[in-house]
Structure to design on (435 residues):
């Protein structure tokens, strides 16, 4: 049994009258690469900040490496890497000096890795940090967070400003980073195709809680869209177990189910004298369906 | 002939989990005669790096292939393709095939093909993929 790296218990956070998080429970084990998904304003950044002890929870607790984050020891901090959305490392420093400055805080700083990444990611070490583009600054922030080979890496939308090439390089370095299956990563993003490549698990925030938590593969295996074509008009209250979203148009229905199994198809086809086809959904579609929006585009190209 | 990760093609944004895509492609390569028993699959590390996916995904695909008897784990060397052998009764194996053919036939009917025309396509496919 591996011990959890991250434990979030009943976490709630209120800003004035606004409940951003309302009872989040999440346990992340060693070696998991967790993608945190959620619409804008769903509380991803708030969750990450509470998790790092940068914001005090209204209710609940968070721990990292078994330590309460509000009193995190220096040792635990040294095993942790974090990239925030708003990155501000001393703008007057040159890239080279910035890496040396940050590196000085860590005992096990891997200067060779940092130099290699700076080179691979095409960052000019003689540039001043202040004149770097947003994307370049983001790259630098990621490199600085990885320089001490932290056991846990937490990234808040690390790829939002990266071009496709840089994103691919970034993913490659994360793949390298997690190769020994001992390093743990939590990262929030909107780019579901990146998550599909590298995440082992997915956590989706919805209405201030974790609306889905589980393995990426099980999510794709279980969430399916059923296209039902019946002989006679279907009842308006089509009762199919595990329905996430349902759309009925006389003999025709589209039902997204959370837990697909073979029996389901045969039950529906006998019950309604219908042909049922099963459609796979990718992460983006599942995300939309979980958010209660149709992921299907109609002929006119507009989302229904 | 060595097998390289380039022979594989993963589509992360498909609804099919990546590990299943790899399992299916290994099976397809075997059926198509592109992979023979005794050959080694690329290492997990090679596959993960070149395909740009998580290591665990590749490990999972390989474990599935091992569990279904397609490959054998050779200590210190990796995954080796086993001699192919069919399992299950004839009826069972046929029933596995049926749903796949049903889908194809439904599509064929939608395309307005008659029995003879469908059979002719099937025969072509059978010729292309020899036993």
């Amino acid at each position: 049994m591996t011990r959890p790296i991250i434990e979030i218990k009943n976490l709630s956070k209120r800003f004035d009258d606004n409940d951003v998080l309302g009872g989040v429970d999440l346990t992340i084990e060693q070696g998991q690469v967790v993608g945190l998904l959620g619409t804008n304003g769903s509380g991803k950044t708030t969750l990450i900040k509470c998790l790092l002890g940068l914001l005090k929870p209204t209710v609940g607790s968070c721990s990292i490496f078994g330590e309460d984050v509000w009193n995190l020891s220096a040792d635990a901090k040294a095993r942790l890497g974090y990239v925030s959305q708003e990155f501000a490392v001393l703008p007057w420093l040159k890239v080279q000096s910035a890496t040396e400055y940050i590196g000085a805080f860590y005992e096990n700083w891997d200067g060779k890795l940092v130099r290699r990444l700076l080179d691979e990611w095409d960052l000019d070490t003689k540039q001043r940090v202040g004149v770097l583009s947003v994307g370049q600054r983001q790259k630098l922030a990621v490199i600085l967070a990885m320089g001490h080979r932290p056991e846990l890496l937490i990234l808040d939308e690390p790829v939002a400003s990266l071009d496709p090439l840089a994103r691919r390089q970034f993913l490659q370095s994360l793949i390298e980073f997690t190769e020994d299956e001992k390093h743990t990563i939590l990262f929030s993003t909107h780019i579901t195709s990146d998550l599909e490549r590298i995440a082992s698990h997915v956590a989706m925030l919805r209405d201030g809680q974790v609306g889905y938590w589980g393995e990426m593969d099980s999510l794709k295996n279980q969430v399916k869209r059923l296209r039902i074509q019946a002989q006679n008009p279907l009842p308006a209250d089509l009762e199919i177990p595990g329905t996430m979203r349902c759309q009925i148009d006389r003999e025709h229905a589209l039902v997204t189910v959370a837990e697909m199994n073979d029996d389901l198809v045969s039950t529906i086809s006998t019950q309604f004298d219908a042909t049922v086809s099963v459609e796979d959904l990718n992460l983006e579609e599942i995300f939309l369906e979980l958010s209660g929006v149709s992921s299907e585009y109609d002929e006119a190209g507009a989302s229904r | 002939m060595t097998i390289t990760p380039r022979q594989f093609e993963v589509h992360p944004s498909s609804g099919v989990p990546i590990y299943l895509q790899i399992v299916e492609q290994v099976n397809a390569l075997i059926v198509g005669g592109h992979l023979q028993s005794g050959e080694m699959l690329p290492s997990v590390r090679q596959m993960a790096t070149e395909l740009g996916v998580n290591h665990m995904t590749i490990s999972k695909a390989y474990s599935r292939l091992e569990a279904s008897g397609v490959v054998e784990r050779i200590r210190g060397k990796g995954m080796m393709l086993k001699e192919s052998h069919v399992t299950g009764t004839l009826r069972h194996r046929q029933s596995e095939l049926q749903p796949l053919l049903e889908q194809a036939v439904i599509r064929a009917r939608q395309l307005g093909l008659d029995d003879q025309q469908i059979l002719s396509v099937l025969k072509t496919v059978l010729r292309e993929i020899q036993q």
